[in-house]
Amino acid sequence: MNNRILGLHHITAIAGDAQKNYDFYSKVLGLRLVKKTVNFDDPGTYHFYYGDTIGTPGSILTFFPWEGIQKGRIGTGMATEIGYSVPAGSLDFWVKRLDALNIRHTPISERFGEQYIQLEDTDGLILNLVASAKADERKPWVTNDIKEEVAIKGFHSVTLMLKDSKATAKVLTDIFGYQQTAQEGNMLRFATDAIDTANIVDIIEAPNGQHGINAGGTNHHVAFRVKDDTVLMDFRKKVVAAGLHITEKIDRNYFYSLYFREPGGVLFELASENPGFVTDETLEELGTHLMLPAQYEAMRKRIEEVLPELKQN
């Protein structure tokens, strides 16, 4: 199994106000901020990583919070929905919690035999809380308000919106080892049996849909998980053999990455499990310090003056 795509690694999205983003994901949804760093290409912007206790691949949602950014448009050629796995029977808790916090959401609905509710974050990013039909044994991060029996476990799925699914489906099946497992209307479900969680990609076919605009409240890219950077480079060969342009290996400090744009327009990343997030902070300290890549450490004082203040309490 180690030489296969192991479901989702992380998803990266674009936000506006950093404080609002932190408050929503850490206080409303109860995720752990496991790393507070900067955008490697724009060190005047934070890069937040939210996930479970240790930042397990398959639990990590990351954000570039660009202050004052315009709102994007959700549409074709992008990932449009993020599915989080929550325990069976927990949706009533989430409905009551969201109602108490005046956060709008849909009624409990059903898709592919699983109950879920849909909501938006403070920038309009679409999230689904899904009571997975399969037992999810992952241990979540818990807070005073959100206990283990209702806490978010990690990703359930990601949804792509495309004008045509065929070429993207071929990448998922022929390169990534996914199989189509179901269809409801214009939504196709793909899954891999290489791992039991964070292993679903749904595709909405919208041939007449408007093309998405990548800005605030939209997803920037979807990263798929591999065991290590040796497997990563094996997959690079497969992507090249399929005639797709892919980057060289990039060191992101906490994982190694390759990027390519799949035929439907979505930016895909392949990311390794190694070395992980407990490399420059202890497990207890994760997310409490501003961690800078080596090339920016000499600029720390100037970067700290530019970044907006973030209150973590």
Task: Please describe what this structure looks like.
By secondary structure, the chain is α+β, with helices and mostly antiparallel strands. The protein has a single domain (8-306), classed as 2,3-Dihydroxybiphenyl 1,2-Dioxygenase, domain 1, CATH 3.10.180. The chain contains 5 helices and 16 strands. It has helices spanning 18-28, 91-100, 166-175, 229-241, 300-306; strands at residues 8-15, 32-39, 42-51, 60-65, 78-86, 109-111, 114-120, 126-131, 154-162, 179-184, 187-191, 200-205, 219-226, 250-251, 255-261, 267-275. Strands 2-3-4-1-13-16-15-14 form an 8-stranded mixed beta sheet. β3 (42-51) and β4 (60-65) form a beta hairpin. The protein is globular and about 50 Å long. The model has no long low-confidence stretch (mean pLDDT 97).
Radius of gyration: 18 Å
Major sheet:
8 strands, mixed
CATH uppermost class:
Alpha Beta
Helix content: 10-25%
How are helices and strands ordered from N to C? EHEEEEHEEEEHEEEEHEEEH
Average predicted local confidence, pLDDT? 97
CATH architecture: Roll
Count of β-strands: 16
Integer tally of domains: 1
Q: Tell me the overall shape.
A: globular
What is the overall number of helices? 5
Percent strand equals 25-35%
Q: Going by CATH, what is the homologous superfamily?
A: 2,3-Dihydroxybiphenyl 1,2-Dioxygenase, domain 1
Cα(first) to Cα(last) distance is: 40 Å
